[in-house]
Amino acid sequence: MRGQLSAGRNSQVFLWLLLVVLLGIIVMPIFWVILGSFKTAFEIANYPFSLPASWNFDNLIGAWQLGNFKTYFFNSAFITIVGMIIVFLVACPAGYVFAQMTFPGNQILFYLFILGLSLPVQAIIIPVFFQLKTMGLVDSLTGITLVSVGMALPFSVFLMRNTFKDVPKELRESAYVDGAGEWRTYLKIMLPLAKPGIVALMVFTFMNIWNDFMLPLVLLISEDKYTIPLGLLSFQGNNASNYGLIFGGTLISMVPSVIVYLIFQRQFVEGMSAGSDK
Which PROSITE patterns does UniProt cross-reference here (predicted)? Predict the structure, then answer.
């Protein structure tokens, strides 16, 4: 008995140590970026993990002004906000239909829809590029927004379908008995009950579009169309890199994501948990 208790304690200690190591691996780069954002170039090169001798905002100001970050920030915000709106308008009704309605081919259509989850962006980026070129949407915010939405929709529909699956169908039937139509039932009853899933959907979509690097790298050419990840890349040259501006720009790009996650953390976890039940 004592041997079993000792083995249990040892396994718990090992698990905690493993979690601490993993936490350190995750936190250290973030800590390094935050410190580097307030250091001079000399301090970054010679004392990378020490506290700044004096906390200054030159790197943040330089990244925002000299690095044309205002334009990059606006582009990222436009693509992200418009993409979130479109994903919401498409994924929520689609998830509701797949979860609450029965019609021939329901399951087949759903599985075909989420087939996109198995396709990495690297496998389809070249065909997508030529398709956008044919449509005249290469190097445009409209084109990359549409592609970002397309990449986000398979998981978004999957998440919302599972969220609406958790809502009893009896509620929908009761609404019909009371005279509510399909759209009224969806807007007045189903959407409010699916709030945690919707919040998870919005946070997930925000994070993916805001931080995306691959699609802007391939589909955007003009610097005035760059998003924040591409803007950070412009601070790195062939012969030299301005790490102060890179750190400052990275910190600026992190702030919206951190704020969004901290505000909606509880609802995000609830929504993702609901989406993983089925």
Answer: ABC_TM1
